[in-house]
User: Which sequence fits this backbone?
């Protein structure tokens, strides 16, 4: 009888497929933030009273948990989908035809962060929606979004050192903008933990702060953020930072203005559930655009053509006569091989100061 033969190694994967996977991860991680907000706002935080099961002896919601059980159970199903993508990403990164350690590290970081998120979600249920754990659960989601947006961006760029913009003020302004945006998210969780939407009618524990005072502080930080975004829109034009940076800055200005409008509307209308959910979605979008803007003012070499499947070590970069040259300027930058950090052996041709990613 003929013996069946199995491949000794997993097949390699192209960058195009990996980019589709990273984009899917961005969408799913943004979606899970919005659905998690819906769980809290509908009072379904304890719709499944135990974790990881949904009630003793069952991983599926039961009829006695009614609609709250289905809302929480649906959110857990989305979490499983996110987990599968997080598990696959580092495996695919390890099997890329053009191996890159930066992509592997970022993918593995997502997997570690997701495991931490699952544990934190379980603790949130076990401790009956403690507001500090709820806030930490949301903020860790923002860290994962930071990771996945950077990963998606890097997957669409080539090897080589990152370059700061010609004007150092723009670099530091983009970093300050991201820091203030992060602070706005943190203060937003304090407002949430002090407000009426605890996630479950029986879990009334709150931070104990005066909601008007913390909401005013949150609004003050948001006003600073608007000022920084407006300054950045002007700075990217004066510094000629490129079309992508200019477009992203304008999109961020529109997003932060809309977000502030929603925030004021929900405050003066008694914090209705629909506006709060819209505010959560807006915060997620604003954070993604902020990260993309901070990345857009930096420069990396453009993505290279992929080596053909089955190509050997010399297959990389053999698509044309310009093999071994950087895009656009014709200066040789080596043979495309990289050091331990995935950066090209020789500096990029364009002037600037290389910094770590």
Assistant:
């Amino acid at each position: 009888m003929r013996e069946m033969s199995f491949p000794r190694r997993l097949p390699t994967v192209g960058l195009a497929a990996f980019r589709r996977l990273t984009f899917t991860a961005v969408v799913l991680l943004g979606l899970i933030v919005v659905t998690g907000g819906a769980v809290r706002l509908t009072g379904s935080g304890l719709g499944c009273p135990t974790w990881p099961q949904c009630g003793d002896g069952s991983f599926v919601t039961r009829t006695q948990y009614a609609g709250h059980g289905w809302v929480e159970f649906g959110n857990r199903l989305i979490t499983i989908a996110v987990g599968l993508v997080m598990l696959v990403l580092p495996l695919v990164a390890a099997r890329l035809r053009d191996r890159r350690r930066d992509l592997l590290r970022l993918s593995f970081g997502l997997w570690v962060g997701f495991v931490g998120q699952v544990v934190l979600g379980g603790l949130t249920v076990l401790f009956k929606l403690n507001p500090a754990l709820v806030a930490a659960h949301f903020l860790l989601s923002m860290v994962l979004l930071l990771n996945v947006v950077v990963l998606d961006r890097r997957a669409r760029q080539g090897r080589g050192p990152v370059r700061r913009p010609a004007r150092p003020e723009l670099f530091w302004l983009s970093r300050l903008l991201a820091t203030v945006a992060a602070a706005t998210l943190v203060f937003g969780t304090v407002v949430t933990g002090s407000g009426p939407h605890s996630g479950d009618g029986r879990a009334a524990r709150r931070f104990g702060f005066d909601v008007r005072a913390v909401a005013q502080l949150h609004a003050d930080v948001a006003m600073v953020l608007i000022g920084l975004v407006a300054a950045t829109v002007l700075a990217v034009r004066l510094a000629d930072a490129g079309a992508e940076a200019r477009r992203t800055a304008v999109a961020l200005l529109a997003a932060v203005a809309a977000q502030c409008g929603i925030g004021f509307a929900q405050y003066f209308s008694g914090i209705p559930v629909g506006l709060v959910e819209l505010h959560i979605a807006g915060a997620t979008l604003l954070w993604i655009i902020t990260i993309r803007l901070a990345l857009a003012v930096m420069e990396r070499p453009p993505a290279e053509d992929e080596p053909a499947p089955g190509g050997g070590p010399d297959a990389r970069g053999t698509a044309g006569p310009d093999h071994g040259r950087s895009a656009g300027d014709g200066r040789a930058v080596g043979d495309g091989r990289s050091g331990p950090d995935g950066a090209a052996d020789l500096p990029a041709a364009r002037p600037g100061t290389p910094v770590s990613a």
Observations:
- Residues 12-159 form one domain.
- Residues 3-7, 308-357 have pLDDT under 50 and may be disordered.
